[in-house]
Design a protein that fits this description.
- The chain contains three helices and seven strands.
- It has a seven-stranded antiparallel beta sheet, covered by helices on one side.
- With 160 residues, it is an alpha+beta fold.
- It has one domain: START domain (Alpha-D-Glucose-1,6-Bisphosphate, Chain A, domain 4), CATH 3.30.530.
Length: 160
């Protein structure tokens, strides 16, 4: 068949808009191993569940073997993400989908780099294209990560 038999030409494929990763960093006055431990093993002590959680105040956030979970005060458990890489003192990488399913997961990568007597903790949040609302989610996290990381930094003794 000839293309002229169709009433209109096929639309040109549009390039997909790639949403760039967002990156934030804080510096804490500890060695990378301690900074990693504070970020992971002690997350329940600094994560702001009152403003950044599924169940709200009274819930408990923790890393359990291969996942990051939140448990409500009624023992309801939600998976926030699956651990991809766990290198104490160096790197934490995980899928990220609090309140959503794993099919719409983004990716978090947290690197711990020694800088003198301190550690720079760099969070990179990427892979926004998994969900239809990727741009909206990216904007929300761009606004929220600084306050969450400042809670961690204060917990670890950082002075601004």
């Amino acid at each position: 068949m000839s293309p002229s038999l169709f009433s209109h030409a096929a639309e040109e494929p549009q390039p997909s808009k790639v949403l760039e990763p967002i990156t934030f960093e804080v510096t804490v006055p500890h060695a990378p191993e301690q900074a990693f431990e504070g970020f992971t093993d002690l997350i329940h002590l600094w994560w702001p569940v009152d403003t950044h959680s599924i169940f709200g105040d009274g819930s408990h956030v923790e890393f359990e073997e291969t996942v990051l979970t939140e448990t409500s005060d009624r023992d309801e458990v939600r998976n926030w993400g699956d651990i991809l890489e766990w290198e104490p003192g160096r790197l934490l990488s995980l899928t990220w989908h609090p309140g959503a399913g794993p099919l719409t997961a983004t990716r978090l990568e947290v690197r711990f780099t020694a800088e003198g007597q301190s550690t720079v903790v760099r969070l990179r949040h990427s892979d926004w294209g998994q969900a239809a609302d990727g741009a909206e989610r990216r904007l929300k996290y761009q606004q929220d990560w600084p306050s969450v990381l400042s809670k961690y930094a204060r917990f670890m003794g950082a002075i601004r």
